[in-house]
Amino acid sequence: MPSDRLTQGLLRHDLQSVAALVDRGERVLDLGCGDGDLLAYLIGAMDCTGTGVERDPGAVMAAIGRGVPLVELDLDTQLDEFGDDSFDVVVLSRTLQAVLRPKEVITQMRRIGRRLIVTMPNFGYWRHRLRLLSGRMPQSRDLPYTWYDTPNLHHTTLVTLEEFFDECGLDVERRIPLDGAGRRPRAGGRLLQHGANLLAGSAIYVLARRG
To answer: Which InterPro entries does this entry report, sorted A to Z (predicted)?
Structure first.
């Protein structure tokens, strides 16, 4: 069992918010799990069972070193390795924009888990809009790469993203907008909720299968 990252406060701010959406003892599949921080916490502190999927060699070694169960699969083509309803929760954090076939990935997630948690950068964030108005490509904490050296293949606003979820047969149970630092703001939260497409740097979605 992982012995580190057992304190939620040690997680990245957005992962703290994701962890708070997972119930004790649930079965969790973390797609694009990175170095396993989230799963290490959920397994060690929340009595969850979990599996991570990752392909980056450095991240794979880090996750394995923490004792996080992990498989190396291609998210675009190999998620059919997992059975129907084999997990309670499927997490895809800051990864959807980097896969080749987002609709296929989301469709497979919908089949695998009864609840999905998806985090996505918001290309409609006001700072991005100002950068575009200045004639430059957006860069921020959520989109830190230069245009020629980025793993991100797809960009979307929250409005367009929610239309995509609807097209995939998913209902948005909850939307949690995050500020430019990846935090859930303590003050002005209502303003951020109502103006999320403009004011949120990213957002976490809790999704359920329609019907």
So the answer is: Methionine_synth_MetW, SAM-dependent_MTases_sf
